[in-house]
Design a protein that fits this description.
139 residues, alpha+beta, Alpha-Beta Plaits, 4-stranded antiparallel beta sheet, 3 helices
């Protein structure tokens, strides 16, 4: 199966990104995993001087709109966010939700290996088009 995704990261656009829990498991139903995910999102935003325009956390996937001050940052951002959040959420499940894990083991992967990113006119828009009040971090 080939990967037909094309990630465009060569211009200063906002990127609409989506990624899912492996096997579409509902691992983000509870509040604490969401908080962990957002904490690691905020750390990665700060680390790479990235701006968040908006985000939505669903029970089994995540949407976010982010803007980078430099091109070529999306892959590094996603790798850092997914790796650190999966380790922390997995640890929380093992320590706090052992009974849940007996019926729903986490498996080897927490997130799907890939992520989707809207391209061109689908969702990319220049930073200058974002309303001024929305250019700051959104949480």
């Amino acid at each position: 199966m080939s990967d037909k995704r094309r990630i465009i990261d060569d211009q200063l656009y906002c990127h609409f990104i989506t990624f899912s829990c492996d096997h579409r498991r509902r691992l983000l139903d509870m509040d604490h995993p969401k908080r962990i995910l957002l904490g690691h999102f905020n750390k990665q935003l700060t680390k790479q001087s990235t701006k968040c325009v908006g985000f939505v956390i669903m029970p089994n996937h995540v949407h976010a709109v982010v803007w980078f001050p430099e091109t070529g940052q999306l892959s590094k951002f996603m790798q850092g966010w997914k790796r650190s959040s999966s380790d922390a959420i997995r640890q929380w499940y093992e320590q706090q939700q052992a009974a849940y894990l007996q019926s729903q083991p986490l498996g080897e992967k927490f997130w799907t290996p890939k992520y989707d990113c809207a391209r061109d006119s689908e969702c990319h828009f220049p930073h200058s088009l974002i309303p001024r009040g929305r250019r700051r971090l959104c949480f």
